[in-house]
From TrEMBL:
Protein known as: Iron(III) transport system ATP-binding protein
Top-level division of the source organism's lineage: Bacteria
Xref: InterPro entries: AAA+_ATPase (IPR003593), ABC_SmlMolc_Importer (IPR050093), ABC_transporter-like_ATP-bd (IPR003439), ABC_transporter-like_CS (IPR017871), ABC_transpr_FbpC (IPR015853), P-loop_NTPase (IPR027417)
Record keywords: ATP-binding, Cell membrane, Ion transport, Iron, Iron transport, Membrane, Nucleotide-binding, Transport
One Pfam family matching this protein: ABC_tran
Protein family (similarity comment): Belongs to the ABC transporter superfamily.
């Protein structure tokens, strides 16, 4: 198979166990060249383990990994390429810079490993440092830099050798929120400019949505859904994915002769649901509006309200239930107000069956 025709990364049936503990189960995906895949999930779901398998820091218990058509790990066949032979750039949460080396020497390291001559090395290091805005700081030690600057050095080091694949492991989690936002923009710019193929681990959905072409939402060692960010928001595959992504309120529903009611209440949503007697309904925060309550229709009590400049961020409890919904409203509402909740039926998302 020619490497041009191959996806940048192909993973099949990947699993990892430590003794009886299964950490990853049957993970599979492809990343096209020039695409960014985000691995998004809560702490402990296996994101870092998956990245370590891709990097060659761990060997899988089952399955295979191909990078540009080359098999780099195969549990059954025994193939295993070490990290330095996989053509990767890596950016870690803790920067992982060598404290005794200058910024320029840190960035030059991957080129040295590849035997690039000194003159070319200097030019490429200079260009990479310029690209991340650190051209003036080449002679400094990492300890004399801020956290954001150190992470820029790590970025420059990851891209300087134009790797086939860049792996990011929560690269921004040590930075303060404002700097994080700026760095997301910078990483997005670098990825686009160099046409990088990247896999980006994060537990922050804003980062994942901002950077990724595809997002793998992970839960308990499996990929719960793999889709472009927009599709995750409009078509979450399960109530769990919807809840993890904070898309709105997932309500248990019961079919009655008068239509679908929110379980335990007299409020009906007036929409076609799935077949069966029980289901769950996602009322999405992004398209639910407040208004005057209508008898027999969903309503909620305002628990919290926050002015956000262009409107209000409201938290409401659906009446007669413990379920809360957060939404943005151009209309002011006071804590304790009872308001009607209106969502176009086409924006609601149904999941067949009752909660487990
Ligand atoms: N060496 C090990 N032996 C046994 N279990 C391990 C080992 N390393 C990791 N685990 C377990 O594997 C699971 C996945 O860990 P991993 O670090 O991949 O999760 P994560 O999604 O990256 O979490 P975080 O966001 O907190 O870093 C966790 O339950 C962890 O306790």
């Amino acid at each position: 198979m020619s490497s041009e025709a191959s996806p940048a990364v192909r993973v099949r049936g990947l699993g990892l166990s430590y003794g009886p503990a299964r950490i990853l189960h049957d993970v599979g995906f492809e990343v096209a060249q020039g695409e960014v895949l985000a691995l998004l999930g809560p702490s402990g779901c296996g994101k870092t383990t998956l990245l370590q398998l891709l990097a060659g820091l761990l060997a899988p218990t089952t399955g295979q990994i191909d990078i540009r058509g080359r098999r780099v790990a195969d549990a059954a066949g025994g193939a295993f390429l070490p990290p330095e032979a996989r053509g990767l750039g890596m950016v870690f949460q803790d920067y992982a810079l060598w404290p005794h080396m200058s910024v320029a020497d840190n960035v030059a390291f991957p080129l040295e490993m590849r035997g690039v001559p000194a003159r070319e090395r200097r030019a490429r290091v200079g260009a990479a440092l310029e690209r991340v805005g650190l051209g003036q700081l080449a002679g400094r030690r990492p300890s004399d830099l801020s956290g954001g600057q150190q992470q820029r050095v790590a970025l420059a080091r990851a891209i300087v050798a134009e790797p086939q694949l860049v792996l990011f492991d929560e690269p921004l989690s040590n930075l303060d929120p404002e700097l994080r936002e700026a760095m997301v923009g910078e990483i997005g710019g670098l990825v686009a400019q160099f046409g990088l193929t990247a896999i980006y681990v994060t537990h922050d959905r804003t980062e994942a949505f901002a950077l990724a072409d595809q997002v793998a939402v992970m839960r308990a060692g499996r990929i719960a859904q793999l889709a472009p960010p927009q599709a995750l928001v409009t078509e979450p595959a399960s109530p769990e994915v919807a809840e993890f992504l904070h898309l709105g309120c997932v309500l248990p529903m019961r079919r009655t002769p008068d239509g679908w009611r929110i379980a335990g209440t007299a409020m009906s949503v007036g929409a076609e649901g799935p077949s069966g007697r029980e289901a769950r309904l996602l009322l999405p925060g992004r398209s639910t509006r407040i208004g005057t309550p209508v008898e027999g229709r969903p309503a909620g009590e305002v628990l919290r309200t926050r002015f956000r400049g262009d409107g209000y961020a409201l938290t409401l409890r659906i009446l007669d239930t413990p379920f809360e919904i957060q939404l943005a409203s151009p209309v002011r509402a006071a804590v304790g107000d009872v308001v009607g909740l209106f969502c176009p039926p086409e924006d609601m998302r149904w999941f067949a069956g009752a909660a487990a």
